[in-house]
Amino acid sequence: MNRTPLLDVKHLRTRFPTERGEVTAVDGVSFQVYAGETVGLVGESGCGKSVTSLSILRLFGKHSGTRLEGEINFEGKNLLTMSLEEIQKIRGNRISMIFQDPMSSLNPVLTIGDQIAESIIRHQGASKKAALEKTVEMLRLVGIPSPEQRVFDYPHQLSGGMRQRVMIAMGLSCQPKLLIADEPTTALDVTIQAQILDLMLEVKERLNMGMILITHDLGVVAEVCSRVLVMYLGQIVEEAPVETLFEHPKHPYTVGLLRSIPTLEGNRSEKLHVIEGMVPSLHQIPQGCRFAQRCPYADRLCFDQAPDLTEAGRDHKVRCWHQDKLSLEGGMELAFETRERRETLSG
Amino acid sequence: METSSVTITGTTTASHARGRRSILIRRFLANRLAVTGSILVACIALVCLLAPLLTSYDPLEMMVQDRLKPPGSSHWFGTDDFGRDVFSRVVYGSRISMLVGFSVVAITSAIGLLFGLYSAYYRRLDNLLMRINDGLMAFPAILLAIAIMAALGPKMSNVIVALSVVYTPTVARAVRSAAITVREQTYIEAIRALGGKAQRIIWRHMAPNCLSPLIIQATFIFAYAVIIEASLSFLGAGTPPPEPSWGNILNDGRTLLKQAWWMTVFPGIAIMITVLGLNLLGDGLRDLLDPHTNKAKR
């Protein structure tokens, strides 16, 4: 790809003060998003996916003490060095965000029309009447029936799926170039999930937007993403085009995630694969590879030294010392062989 | 085509709004105490508005030949030691109580809302404002009110100032606690992600969500204001005589309690009815508007 990326994140580092000292929730994350593509950001809870997305729009309170380092270039400007006023002009206008829980993402005391119209008036300087017309049009675009009447509804009059459509309409009302969707379908029924994903893909095509989809659902990733970033404990551990990731994963963590998906063909009596152990606390980041304690392949090198993110193929980057030895098929046997050794090492 | 769609939307909004409103009204009407409270408050408000129509006596007019007359057909509540009509004085006294109550509620609500919202939104300001609040709340209400009155001098407008100072912290607290909950809601984060500015978030998105506790609090403050105004006037630190206020009528009657019980009983009943009505109304509104009690009832 030789086009210039829409969003270029370089060595992003996000730190928060906590009662037990400062933690680095995102540690040196770099990635690009191009116009028209969907990038999936996956990982367990607490791995830094959401913090990464909040960092892009700098949605941390002024007094939260959050420190952001690195560069986030969007359309040639660094979002991290902008004034608050400048970034407010970008939020909701050039970059929009959709949140996880449509039940609590709408203000209960304002009509949905008012809420959608608000950002149209704010960013495009439209009159109230023009904004209302645009709002109706947006509601129609996201597939809400009889939008002329629905604009006057309050959030409690809509179902969860409808509310998520409203959130999407709000996010898209100013035709942003980048849409960040933070688990947009997690709170929805499976049937509605598919509808919402289809809708998001459709509008993405129509507006030629870039999209970052944050999720822990690899099924969703397979369906909609073109490229995937796997995060673990604040770092990217694997980055690959979606087919490569599913067919030739190289990082043991990715392998573990893929094996944890239940399949329809699988033996029901067989237990689901579980990645052993817990995500370490951000207060006690291991000095070697961050995944070593839970990794079936870890050896002395892994516990001593942290690997870098290295090229493992075309558009494929992995952060693992043993990436070449691994394959999905051989994983299971190797896991049993190495368990004993790992216990002696980590103990 | 255009016009027809507009009319359709117009009616649906109205019917939605009416639907929700009628549910609220029905639930309010089902609460008998709240209805009693609002009837009492409405009666007092009417008395206060229609005062000149209810009585033919001037509350300040002294009729020496009619001193200390017991309640009867010409003077319903009797007369005091200057021969002034007690009924007329109690009726006109309601105006002072209502005026003080209303003004105090208006001032404390406005300032309390401002302080509450800003201290919920701006953490550093919060520390400053809430410490001032704590300081003011550390004094018992009546003592603080007396102290302020002593400094300002007995005058009705000063009573309003004093009570506003005394009760603003209570409102600010209630609004702040509601606003902190609202501030952490996803919809506020969503608005920020859509480029909303601080002032707009505070006033358009947070303020309406904090009104329920404010309204409930305001009703109770109205009741407290009536009581404390009466207390201050009784102590001679409130509305100065000869202006009739329930508190100073009580004080006039205090020394004559054995000869003329009517001078103390009737203003006392007036205070009781007003405060009872406001408290019942406040309880009713709390049942209706407070989400926690709502859940418990369903």
Task: Describe the structure in your own words.
The complex is a heterodimer of chains A (347) and B (298). In chain A, helix 4 packs across helix 6. The model of chain A is unreliable at 328-342 (pLDDT under 50). Chain A is built from 12 helices and 12 strands. Chain A folds into 2 domains: 7-225, P-loop containing nucleotide triphosphate hydrolases (Rossmann fold); 250-346, no CATH class. In chain A, the strands form 2 sheets. Chain A has an 8-stranded mixed sheet with strand order 6-7-8-3-9-10-12-11, with helices on both faces. Helix content of chain A is 34%, strand content 22%. The radius of gyration of chain A is 22 Å and the shape is globular. Chain A has 347 residues and is α/β, with parallel strands linked by helices. Chain B is mainly α and 298 residues long. Chain B has one domain: MetI-like fold (Orthogonal Bundle), CATH 1.10.3720. Chain B has 13 helices and no strands. Chain B has helices spanning 2-30, 32-49, 51-54, 86-121, 123-137, 141-152, 156-183, 186-193, 198-206, 211-234, 246-254, 262-289, 291-297. Chain B is elongated, with a radius of gyration of 23 Å. The two termini of chain B are 44 Å apart. The relative contact order of chain B is 0.14. The chains are: A alpha/beta (347), B mainly alpha (298). The A-B interface holds A 57, 59, 61, 63, 88-93, 96-97, 99-101, 104-110, 118-119, 122-123, 148-149, 151-154, 157, 167, 170-171 and B 5, 8-9, 12-13, 16, 20, 122-124, 185-197, 204-205, 208-209.
